[in-house]
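Service request form, structural biology core

Requester: graduate student, group of Dr. S.
Request type: structure prediction, single chain
Budget code: on file
Notes: please return the result as structure tokens.

Sequence provided:
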Amino acid sequence: MTARDTGEPHRTATPLELFFDLCFVVAVAQVARELHEYLATGRSFTAVTSFLTVFFAVWWAWMGFTWFSSAYDPGDVLFRLATLATITGALVLAAGVRLAFENHDFVVVVVGYSVMRLAMISLWLRAMFAGAAPRSVALRFAGGLAGVQGLWCVWLLLPELWQRWTFLALALLDLAVPLVAERGHRTSWHPHHIAERYGLFTMIVLGESVMSATSAVRRAVDAAYAGDDLYLLAGGALLTVFAMWWMYFATPAGEFLESSRQAFLWGYGHFLIFGAAAAVGAGLALNIDSLTDEAELAPLTAAASVTLPVAVYLVAVWALHLRPNRPDGWGVYLFPGGAVLVLAATFVPMPMPVLAVGLISAALVTVGVVRERDAERRSGGALA
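Core staff response, request fulfilled:
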């Protein structure tokens, strides 16, 4: 195991990394499915809090492995075995999602999380002994992961009320491990490889949202519901996901991931993008179920289950992708206002078509801003 070259040309995701992402999306799909079911039965508080809790575990385990593999992946047998162990932990976690939602029982989730953590600790120790990572950095990572994981195991013994109050503190400790470990020394992650890995995971999660909406449409068709409003809703849902994909991939992220500070803000901020993309799938399915009377929900609640995560997604993409690429461009400042209009669509009788038209317009604005930026860069290069 050696440190990878941060400027390595043509660095792309490996088949193992793609397999890793696909397996992790199984856990994401489970969390989104439970969110849908709990919202459909009116248990909104349990749905949202449980979704955020379990999704944090999935996202953070994915993050840790992704950044490590970008810096130190040797592609050998030992690394592949550690990767497969991490995938196993993710699948164990996915098996415990329903218990976490139904009974606030996080034992299986923490067991799966522990398996993933043990694999990461072994990788950091291997990087230290191989001389790939500085000894101080690897020890801080391995020690921090082990210490926080021990606290998560103790957290299981607390009463449910105490678990709710202490979850945020433990999550912040988990998030602080890389900040402390890399203080004064950046690991050799590859900017364009990291950007590609995040883009692939975003794309897969958006695909899972399409699958959720498609399944809901199929249930409606099987139940012989064939009203025009169903097809209008399905079309709006599809265009919404198309526009979300378009906006994310309109600008390359690898160009501005130059420092650890930028990378941390960008990487941590993707919790909002991944979480919102997963929640949109649950919301789309919920709106179709509400239309066909499979879920007894107020129209406002059903609409908010889509418009709220879409607004979060819009603001997050604006902050993480558009602002860093072109901080002085007037067009990018339309996006916070666009998020407000998305939320306003909650109060429209049929919000999905309106939302789809608005997001397609936002995607076109994105393309215009990017083309203007690229034209200025080309003209600046020609003058130079």
